[in-house]
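Service request form, structural biology core

Requester: graduate student, group of Dr. S.
Request type: structure prediction, single chain
Budget code: on file
Notes: please return the result as C-alpha coordinates.

Sequence provided:
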Amino acid sequence: MIRRYLLSSVSVLVVLSFTKLFSYTESRTAGAPRERATDSTQSGVPDISRHDLLTEKPGFPFMLSFAGEPIPLENKSVFEKMDRALKRQYKQLQGNRKLLELNPRTMSVIDEILREHDIPTDFRYLPIIESRLSTATSHKGAGGYWQFMPATARHLGLVVNEVVDERNDLVKSTRAACKYLRILYEELGSWTLAAAAYNIGQGKLQKELERQNTGSYYFLDLNRETERYLYRLVAIKELLSRPSMYHLVYGEQGQKI
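Core staff response, request fulfilled:
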Protein backbone atom coordinates (compact mmCIF):
# COMPACT_ATOMS: atom_id res chain seq x y z
CA MET A 1 0.00 0.00 0.00
CA ILE A 2 2.80 2.38 0.99
CA ARG A 3 4.77 1.47 -2.15
CA ARG A 4 1.72 2.17 -4.31
CA TYR A 5 1.25 5.55 -2.59
CA LEU A 6 4.90 6.50 -3.13
CA LEU A 7 4.79 5.57 -6.81
CA SER A 8 1.66 7.67 -7.31
CA SER A 9 3.26 10.66 -5.57
CA VAL A 10 6.42 10.42 -7.70
CA SER A 11 4.31 10.24 -10.86
CA VAL A 12 2.40 13.38 -9.87
CA LEU A 13 5.65 15.23 -9.12
CA VAL A 14 7.14 14.26 -12.49
CA VAL A 15 4.03 15.44 -14.33
CA LEU A 16 4.03 18.74 -12.42
CA SER A 17 7.73 19.31 -13.18
CA PHE A 18 7.24 18.80 -16.92
CA THR A 19 4.17 21.05 -16.90
CA LYS A 20 6.10 23.84 -15.16
CA LEU A 21 9.09 23.46 -17.50
CA PHE A 22 6.88 23.60 -20.60
CA SER A 23 5.01 26.60 -19.23
CA TYR A 24 8.30 28.44 -18.56
CA THR A 25 9.65 27.71 -22.06
CA GLU A 26 6.41 28.80 -23.70
CA SER A 27 6.40 32.01 -21.66
CA ARG A 28 9.99 32.82 -22.69
CA THR A 29 9.23 32.17 -26.36
CA ALA A 30 6.11 34.27 -26.32
CA GLY A 31 7.94 37.14 -24.60
CA ALA A 32 10.90 37.28 -27.00
CA PRO A 33 9.25 39.22 -29.83
CA ARG A 34 7.99 41.85 -27.41
CA GLU A 35 11.52 42.34 -26.06
CA ARG A 36 12.94 42.74 -29.57
CA ALA A 37 10.21 45.19 -30.55
CA THR A 38 10.90 47.27 -27.43
CA ASP A 39 14.64 47.35 -28.16
CA SER A 40 13.97 48.39 -31.77
CA THR A 41 11.65 51.18 -30.72
CA GLN A 42 14.05 52.49 -28.10
CA SER A 43 16.99 52.58 -30.52
CA GLY A 44 15.01 54.50 -33.12
CA VAL A 45 15.83 51.96 -35.86
CA PRO A 46 12.86 51.30 -38.13
CA ASP A 47 11.57 47.72 -37.98
CA ILE A 48 12.16 47.04 -41.67
CA SER A 49 13.82 43.95 -43.12
CA ARG A 50 16.98 45.00 -44.94
CA HIS A 51 16.70 41.91 -47.14
CA ASP A 52 13.13 42.73 -48.13
CA LEU A 53 14.12 46.27 -49.06
CA LEU A 54 17.13 45.32 -51.13
CA THR A 55 15.34 42.56 -53.01
CA GLU A 56 12.93 45.16 -54.36
CA LYS A 57 15.70 45.88 -56.89
CA PRO A 58 17.50 42.68 -57.94
CA GLY A 59 21.17 43.54 -58.28
CA PHE A 60 20.97 46.67 -56.10
CA PRO A 61 24.21 46.84 -54.04
CA PHE A 62 23.84 45.89 -50.39
CA MET A 63 26.06 48.73 -49.21
CA LEU A 64 26.69 52.23 -50.52
CA SER A 65 28.76 55.00 -49.01
CA PHE A 66 30.00 58.51 -49.56
CA ALA A 67 33.58 59.39 -48.55
CA GLY A 68 33.69 56.22 -46.47
CA GLU A 69 30.49 57.07 -44.59
CA PRO A 70 27.70 54.46 -45.02
CA ILE A 71 24.31 55.38 -46.47
CA PRO A 72 21.49 53.97 -44.28
CA LEU A 73 19.74 51.95 -46.98
CA GLU A 74 17.89 49.98 -44.29
CA ASN A 75 15.62 53.00 -44.01
CA LYS A 76 12.91 52.70 -46.67
CA SER A 77 12.77 56.42 -47.44
CA VAL A 78 16.55 56.60 -47.91
CA PHE A 79 16.48 53.50 -50.09
CA GLU A 80 13.79 54.97 -52.34
CA LYS A 81 15.59 58.32 -52.68
CA MET A 82 18.81 56.54 -53.64
CA ASP A 83 16.93 54.39 -56.13
CA ARG A 84 15.33 57.45 -57.75
CA ALA A 85 18.67 59.26 -57.97
CA LEU A 86 20.37 56.28 -59.60
CA LYS A 87 17.50 55.85 -62.04
CA ARG A 88 17.59 59.54 -62.96
CA GLN A 89 21.37 59.65 -63.38
CA TYR A 90 21.40 56.40 -65.32
CA LYS A 91 19.58 58.20 -68.11
CA GLN A 92 22.45 60.71 -68.19
CA LEU A 93 25.24 58.16 -67.98
CA GLN A 94 26.34 58.51 -71.58
CA GLY A 95 26.63 62.28 -71.24
CA ASN A 96 28.59 62.05 -68.00
CA ARG A 97 30.97 59.46 -69.41
CA LYS A 98 31.55 61.65 -72.44
CA LEU A 99 32.22 64.60 -70.15
CA LEU A 100 35.02 62.69 -68.41
CA GLU A 101 36.44 61.47 -71.71
CA LEU A 102 36.66 65.06 -72.99
CA ASN A 103 38.28 66.37 -69.80
CA PRO A 104 40.96 63.87 -68.72
CA ARG A 105 43.46 66.56 -67.72
CA THR A 106 40.88 68.44 -65.65
CA MET A 107 40.00 65.31 -63.69
CA SER A 108 43.66 64.40 -63.29
CA VAL A 109 44.45 67.81 -61.77
CA ILE A 110 41.45 67.60 -59.44
CA ASP A 111 42.42 64.09 -58.30
CA GLU A 112 46.01 65.13 -57.59
CA ILE A 113 45.02 68.20 -55.54
CA LEU A 114 42.42 66.24 -53.57
CA ARG A 115 45.14 63.73 -52.63
CA GLU A 116 47.54 66.51 -51.65
CA HIS A 117 44.97 67.94 -49.24
CA ASP A 118 43.74 64.56 -47.97
CA ILE A 119 40.20 65.12 -49.21
CA PRO A 120 38.19 61.95 -50.06
CA THR A 121 38.30 61.13 -53.76
CA ASP A 122 34.49 61.01 -53.92
CA PHE A 123 34.57 64.82 -54.07
CA ARG A 124 36.07 64.59 -57.58
CA TYR A 125 32.49 64.32 -58.83
CA LEU A 126 31.31 67.51 -57.15
CA PRO A 127 32.43 69.83 -60.03
CA ILE A 128 30.41 67.66 -62.42
CA ILE A 129 27.27 68.56 -60.47
CA GLU A 130 28.28 72.16 -59.87
CA SER A 131 29.61 73.30 -63.25
CA ARG A 132 29.81 70.37 -65.68
CA LEU A 133 33.59 71.02 -65.49
CA SER A 134 33.18 74.48 -67.04
CA THR A 135 33.91 78.05 -65.96
CA ALA A 136 30.34 79.22 -66.41
CA THR A 137 28.73 81.72 -64.05
CA SER A 138 25.27 80.99 -62.69
CA HIS A 139 22.40 83.47 -62.57
CA LYS A 140 23.06 83.78 -58.82
CA GLY A 141 26.68 84.80 -59.42
CA ALA A 142 28.43 81.52 -58.55
CA GLY A 143 31.28 80.89 -60.94
CA GLY A 144 34.16 78.64 -61.95
CA TYR A 145 34.70 74.91 -61.76
CA TRP A 146 33.58 74.76 -58.11
CA GLN A 147 30.87 77.43 -58.40
CA PHE A 148 32.00 79.78 -55.65
CA MET A 149 30.11 82.94 -54.88
CA PRO A 150 32.44 85.99 -55.12
CA ALA A 151 32.47 86.63 -51.36
CA THR A 152 33.22 82.97 -50.55
CA ALA A 153 35.98 82.86 -53.17
CA ARG A 154 37.65 85.97 -51.72
CA HIS A 155 37.35 84.57 -48.20
CA LEU A 156 39.22 81.49 -49.40
CA GLY A 157 42.02 83.61 -50.88
CA LEU A 158 40.97 83.80 -54.53
CA VAL A 159 41.14 87.05 -56.46
CA VAL A 160 37.79 88.02 -57.94
CA ASN A 161 37.43 91.44 -59.53
CA GLU A 162 36.61 93.06 -62.87
CA VAL A 163 39.99 92.07 -64.30
CA VAL A 164 40.84 88.72 -62.68
CA ASP A 165 38.60 85.84 -61.64
CA GLU A 166 40.60 83.01 -60.08
CA ARG A 167 37.48 80.91 -59.72
CA ASN A 168 38.22 79.99 -63.34
CA ASP A 169 41.76 78.85 -62.51
CA LEU A 170 41.49 75.07 -62.12
CA VAL A 171 44.47 74.66 -59.78
CA LYS A 172 43.77 77.66 -57.53
CA SER A 173 40.03 77.07 -57.33
CA THR A 174 40.48 73.37 -56.55
CA ARG A 175 42.90 74.20 -53.75
CA ALA A 176 40.37 76.71 -52.43
CA ALA A 177 37.64 74.03 -52.61
CA CYS A 178 39.82 71.64 -50.61
CA LYS A 179 40.41 74.33 -48.01
CA TYR A 180 36.67 74.99 -47.78
CA LEU A 181 35.74 71.31 -47.55
CA ARG A 182 38.30 70.79 -44.80
CA ILE A 183 36.82 73.69 -42.82
CA LEU A 184 33.31 72.29 -43.25
CA TYR A 185 34.41 68.81 -42.20
CA GLU A 186 36.16 70.06 -39.08
CA GLU A 187 33.12 72.13 -38.10
CA LEU A 188 30.49 69.46 -38.85
CA GLY A 189 32.42 66.24 -38.19
CA SER A 190 31.17 64.45 -41.30
CA TRP A 191 32.08 64.48 -44.99
CA THR A 192 28.43 63.87 -45.85
CA LEU A 193 27.39 66.98 -43.93
CA ALA A 194 30.33 68.89 -45.43
CA ALA A 195 29.01 68.12 -48.92
CA ALA A 196 25.48 69.17 -47.94
CA ALA A 197 26.83 72.41 -46.42
CA TYR A 198 28.73 73.06 -49.65
CA ASN A 199 25.34 73.28 -51.31
CA ILE A 200 23.16 74.99 -48.72
CA GLY A 201 25.73 76.81 -46.60
CA GLN A 202 27.18 75.87 -43.22
CA GLY A 203 25.00 78.24 -41.18
CA LYS A 204 21.73 77.08 -42.72
CA LEU A 205 22.65 73.42 -42.37
CA GLN A 206 23.63 73.75 -38.72
CA LYS A 207 20.40 75.58 -38.01
CA GLU A 208 18.38 72.75 -39.55
CA LEU A 209 20.37 70.08 -37.70
CA GLU A 210 19.56 71.79 -34.41
CA ARG A 211 15.95 72.58 -35.27
CA GLN A 212 15.19 69.05 -36.42
CA ASN A 213 17.27 67.45 -33.66
CA THR A 214 19.29 65.07 -35.83
CA GLY A 215 22.93 64.63 -36.73
CA SER A 216 22.28 62.90 -40.05
CA TYR A 217 21.83 64.48 -43.46
CA TYR A 218 19.67 61.56 -44.53
CA PHE A 219 16.94 62.31 -41.99
CA LEU A 220 16.76 66.07 -42.53
CA ASP A 221 13.82 67.79 -44.18
CA LEU A 222 15.57 70.28 -46.49
CA ASN A 223 14.87 72.21 -49.67
CA ARG A 224 14.45 70.02 -52.72
CA GLU A 225 17.87 70.76 -54.24
CA THR A 226 19.87 70.06 -51.08
CA GLU A 227 17.74 67.03 -50.20
CA ARG A 228 18.70 65.46 -53.53
CA TYR A 229 22.29 66.73 -53.58
CA LEU A 230 24.09 63.84 -51.86
CA TYR A 231 22.00 61.19 -53.59
CA ARG A 232 22.83 62.76 -56.93
CA LEU A 233 26.53 62.90 -56.07
CA VAL A 234 26.59 59.26 -54.96
CA ALA A 235 24.62 58.18 -58.02
CA ILE A 236 27.08 59.85 -60.39
CA LYS A 237 30.01 58.31 -58.53
CA GLU A 238 28.45 54.84 -58.58
CA LEU A 239 27.43 54.89 -62.23
CA LEU A 240 30.74 56.26 -63.50
CA SER A 241 32.73 53.86 -61.31
CA ARG A 242 30.88 50.63 -62.09
CA PRO A 243 28.14 51.13 -64.69
CA SER A 244 27.81 47.45 -65.60
CA MET A 245 26.44 46.64 -62.13
CA TYR A 246 23.41 48.83 -62.74
CA HIS A 247 22.46 47.37 -66.13
CA LEU A 248 20.75 44.56 -64.21
CA VAL A 249 18.99 46.97 -61.89
CA TYR A 250 17.52 49.40 -64.39
CA GLY A 251 16.79 47.07 -67.25
CA GLU A 252 16.60 47.90 -70.96
CA GLN A 253 18.34 51.25 -70.67
CA GLY A 254 21.53 49.29 -70.04
CA GLN A 255 21.47 48.02 -73.61
CA LYS A 256 21.88 51.57 -74.91
CA ILE A 257 25.17 52.19 -73.09
